């Protein structure tokens, strides 16, 4: 059986690391939701640009959108606080099998936490998360073509925190990061060769089968196993989270911990590239296709859209970015043919 969408009226205390500042991760509860209708998607494609290549006009627009989102009341499901909490509520501490995340899986007794990392639901969940986040931003600035930038960390020029996130006066800034990993603080080119090899392994030579790339199956009632993640989710996705977070903190907030990662605007840019990798992986060889198992295709999540409506989204409607009218600026891919 597929994972079912959580019940927002049953959202409870999140399983935060011991000693972390208490947070209520739950969204405003709603009894009703509608089903995502892929045919309702706007006909204008949003093309996500590489964060290090954007121009000033774009950055102004992006900053304005995030500023407006941050200014929404904290109980508005579209507010930055609530959007960050989407991530908080959908994670559970897997090292603690008897604790629960904010959501339990519906209809499963004894209760099992819903965890959207470490398994084959990782890519689709995060695709929808960005998709709605982006639609909300677009609505706030009245620009239906607005697209989030992606952090092009798989190229030499993208191997640092993109400069647009490093201005302390900008709404794109987050003070809780590793200070020495801000632009200029590292020597990215020296590491390019090894990073290129890592990309090649995670995307090409080490990801020849679906389960290697996506991670292990997770079905209704399963408790995610922290070792179930796919190649890319583990590295570089996970490593970059920890690299951005503040290493001097016990829980490496913000980016370095699941409960706090969504509080950094860079999170959504990081995940743009993760999402781009799903599209790219499918172009790399004949067996690189999505799962056909209905327990994957019918797994469902809930998100609030730009009109504060709760939407139930199934994995089957997320597979094709073209249908979601989401595209990526085309940039050179230098790791494809790298040989170890
Ligand atoms: Cu939900 Cu980058 O993790």
Lateral strand order in the biggest sheet: 1-4-3
The CA-CA distance between the termini, in Å, is 40 Å
CATH topology: di-copper center containing domain from catechol oxidase
Task: Give the radius of gyration.
Answer: 19 Å
Overall tally of structural domains = 1
Based on Cα principal axes, name the global outline: globular
| The top level CATH class name | Mainly Alpha
The name of the CATH architecture is Orthogonal Bundle
Question: What is the averaged pLDDT score?
Answer: 91
Largest sheet: 3 strands, mixed
Helix content: 25-40%
Number of helices: 8
Helix-strand pattern: EEHHHHHHHHEEE
Bound molecules: CU-O-CU linkage
What fraction of the residues are assigned to beta strands by DSSP? 5-15%
Explain how this protein is built:
- The protein is mainly alpha-helical and 340 residues long.
- It has one domain (8-328): Orthogonal Bundle (di-copper center containing domain from catechol oxidase).
- It contains 8 helices and 5 strands.
- It has a 3-stranded mixed sheet with strand order 1-4-3, covered by helices on one side.
- A hairpin with a 5-residue loop joins strand 3 (300-304) and strand 4 (310-314).
- Helix 3 crosses helix 7 (266-281), helix 4 (192-205) runs antiparallel to helix 6 (231-244) and helix 6 packs antiparallel against helix 7.
- The chain is globular, with a radius of gyration of 19 Å.
- The site of CU-O-CU linkage (C2O) has 7 residues, from helix 6.
- Cu cation B binds at residues 237, 241, 271.
- Keywords: Copper, Disulfide bond, Metal-binding, Oxidoreductase, Thioether bond.
- Its cofactor is Cu(2+).
- GO terms for molecular function: catechol oxidase activity; metal ion binding.
């Amino acid at each position: 059986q597929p994972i079912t969408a959580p019940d927002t009226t049953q959202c409870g205390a999140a399983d935060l690391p011991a000693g972390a500042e208490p947070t209520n991760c739950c969204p405003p509860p709603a009894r009703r939701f509608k089903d995502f209708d892929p045919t309702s998607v706007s006909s204008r494609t949003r093309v996500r640009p590489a964060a290090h290549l954007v121009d000033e006009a774009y950055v102004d627009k992006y900053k304005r959108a995030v500023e407006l989102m941050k200014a929404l009341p904290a109980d508005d499901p579209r507010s930055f606080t609530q959007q960050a909490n989407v991530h908080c509520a959908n994670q559970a501490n897997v090292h603690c099998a008897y604790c629960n995340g904010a959501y339990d899986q519906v209809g499963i007794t004894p209760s099992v936490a819903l965890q959207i990392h470490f398994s084959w639901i990782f890519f689709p969940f995060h695709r929808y998360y960005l998709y709605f986040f982006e639609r909300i931003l677009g609505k706030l600035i009245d620009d239906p073509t607005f697209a989030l930038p992606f952090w092009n960390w798989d190229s030499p020029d993208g191997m640092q925190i993109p400069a647009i996130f490093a201005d302390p006066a900008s709404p794109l800034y987050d003070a809780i990061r590793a200070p020495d990993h801000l632009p200029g603080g590292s020597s990215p080119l020296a590491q390019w060769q090894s990073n290129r090899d890592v990309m090649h392994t995670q995307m090409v030579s080490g990801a020849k089968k679906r389960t290697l790339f996506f991670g292990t199956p997770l079905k209704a009632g399963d408790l995610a196993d922290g070792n179930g993640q796919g190649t890319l989710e583990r590295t570089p996705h996970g490593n970059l989270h920890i690299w951005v977070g503040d290493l001097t903190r016990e829980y490496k907030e913000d980016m370095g911990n699941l409960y706090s990662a969504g509080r950094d605007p860079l999170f959504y840019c990081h995940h743009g590239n993760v999402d781009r990798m799903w599209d790219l992986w499918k172009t790399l060889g004949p067996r690189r296709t999505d799962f056909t198992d209905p327990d994957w295709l019918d797994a469902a999540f809930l998100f609030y859209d730009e009109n504060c409506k709760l939407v139930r989204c199934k994995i089957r409607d997320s597979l094709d970015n073209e249908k979601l009218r989401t595209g990526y600026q085309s940039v050179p891919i230098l790791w494809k043919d790298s040989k170890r």
